[in-house]
Amino acid sequence: MKRLTFVLAGAAALALSACNNNNQDQVDNAVMNQPNADELNALADNAANDAANAPAPVVNKARDENAAAPADNTANPTDAEEQNVSGM
Q1: In the list 40, 41, 65, 77, which could disulfide-bond 81, CB 3.0-4.6 Å?
Q2: Smallest Cα–Cα separation from 17: which of 25, 6, 9, 7?
Q3: Per-residue confidence at 16, pLDDT binned at 50, 70, 90?
């Protein structure tokens, strides 16, 4: 039993030693592939300007269709009717 414990502890130590996080090449590659803050700000400004200048025909069309729809004349239930759930 002591041998099995020693073997398992050794295997765990080897497995954990393989998890080395000091690989500077991968860190440098990840940093190199990221855009800098100025590029991100320029992209955000362009997107905001495009959104501000773009027409919104879908919103206007939906608003016009809702305005042309017939009025809903149904009465809202009273508080007492809403509280009466035993009748349902």
Answers
A1: 77
A2: 9
A3: confident
